[in-house]
Amino acid sequence: xxxxxxxxxxxxxxxxxxxxxxxxxxxxxxxxxxxxxxxxxxxxxxxxxxxxxxxxxxxxxxxxxxxxxxxxxxxxxxxxxxxxxxxxxxxxxxxxxxxxxxxxxxxxxxxxxxxxxxxxxxxxxxxxxxxxxxxxxxxxxxxxxxxxxxxxxxxxxxxxxxxxxxxxxxxxxxxxxxxxxxxxxxxxxxxxxxxxxxxxxxxxxxxxxxxxxxxxxxxxxxxxxxxxxxxxxxxxxxxxxxxxx
Length: 245
Hints:
Layout: H1 3-13, H2 18-26, H3 30-33, H4 41-45, H5 48-58, H6 63-72, H7 82-85, H8 93-104, H9 115-130, H10 132-144, H11 147-158, H12 162-176, H13 185-196, H14 207-221, H15 225-240
Helix pairs in contact: 1-2, 1-15, 2-6, 5-6, 5-11, 8-14, 9-14, 11-12, 13-14
């Protein structure tokens, strides 16, 4: 999933501070898209348990930040369903992969690695059209999030340099995710282009081709996306039950 999909799962699978839940749902997206060697991928993207333990000891009112990191990850969270989401486009898979190669200027051997990203972007476009309140909430969080405070908590919880951690968080919140880009398909493509440029392959996304591809994928998902999100929501909610207080 991408920014809106993760925010949707965070606010539906969990009950808590909405601003903290949405902010926390962003943070695992720093990797692999921001190429700073502060965190290892597994450490940040799947590190919710460690951070939750730290926050419970030192900043219990902020525990929702870490709880929702768990709701994002691939072990207990929404990313666990990345491969399953591809079944909704199984018939069109080969053609989509060809179009991804063109949109991301990729070697054909690598384009299949981006398929779940475009499925996430398709879901985000459907959310833009059908969940305007969610979009407004995410935009509001992006405008109001305290980058310094979030960076302090992350750096303290993982034993990292605070200044370098702040650089990562600021890049995500202030450069990659821009509130004005969450209202159009072209804006979603711009967010994706900024993310993909930070990958090891340094994808060069053609915004027009990517926008058309997001539209195509969203059309393929029209019948199933709500049922899929509900399944993810229920599974994530169940998985995180042991961590609730």
